[in-house]
Write a structure and sequence with these properties.
Elements lengths: L22 E5 L14 H10 L3 E5 L6 H10 L4 H4 L4 E2 L2
Parallel strand pairs: 1-2, 2-3
Length: 91
Amino acid sequence: MPPKNEPVPLLSGLSDIADNYSHFVIDLWGVIHNGVELSPHARTTLERMTAEGKKWVFVTNTSPAADYISIRMEDMGLSRELHKGKNYYGG
């Protein structure tokens, strides 16, 4: 937690903090994709996190079923290995 009266730092992406933690809860919309395409470094960051043994789940506040979200992730270019089996919570 930042000391009092100091601004919370803005992150340019997940890769800014990936080395600091072993487990993540990752929002899909705005972190992994914008609804149309993957965020610029989403794939490479998740690949690196996978290689380093990091664990994560995805969360979303959208209502589509997990199977639909999984298909959309693949349509955007996120390989099945990086998202399948990662739970989608939300709705």
